[in-house]
Amino acid sequence: MEIDNFKSFIRTIPSIKEDVLNGRYTWQQLYEFYVLYGEDDKMWEPYKKSQIDLSGILEIVKNVDLDALAKSMDGIQKILDLVGGFIVKDDQKPQSRQWYDD
C-alpha cells in the first residue's frame, strides 16, 4: 500500500515533523507530493542531507580512538599547567624597591 510506503519513508526523515508542526506543510500535502513525485524528488533533499550530515558525524565519533584522545588531552593539560606555573611565579615575585620608593 502506498500509505505504508509513505509512513516508512517519513520515518527515515524525522526532521520533517518540525515543518508539519510549524505549519509549513500538512501530512496530506506531504503524502500527495510523495505519491506524485516519489521519494527521489528534489523536495526531500534538504531533509535527506540533514540525515546524511548527522550520520556522517556519528560515524566520525564512532571511529574516534578514545585512548589517543585521552593522551592528547593529558599532554595539553601538562602544557597548560606548565604555563600556569610560570604566570603564578611571575605574579608572586617580590617587586624590588627603587631608591625613589623610600
Keyphrases for this structure?
mainly alpha, single chain, elongated, 102 residues
Report on the architecture of this protein:
- This protein has helices at 2-11, 16-21, 27-37, 45-62, 66-92.
- With 102 residues, it is an all-alpha fold.
- The protein has a domain at 2-64.
- The termini are far apart.
Helix/strand layout:
Blueprint lengths: L1 H10 L4 H6 L5 H11 L7 H18 L3 H27 L10
* Unreliable sequence segments: none
| Strand residues, percent | under 5%
The number of helices is 5
- Rounded mean pLDDT is 80
- Summarize the helix and strand pattern as letters: HHHHH
Range of helix content: over 70%
Instruction: Supply the helix-strand structural class.
Output: mainly alpha
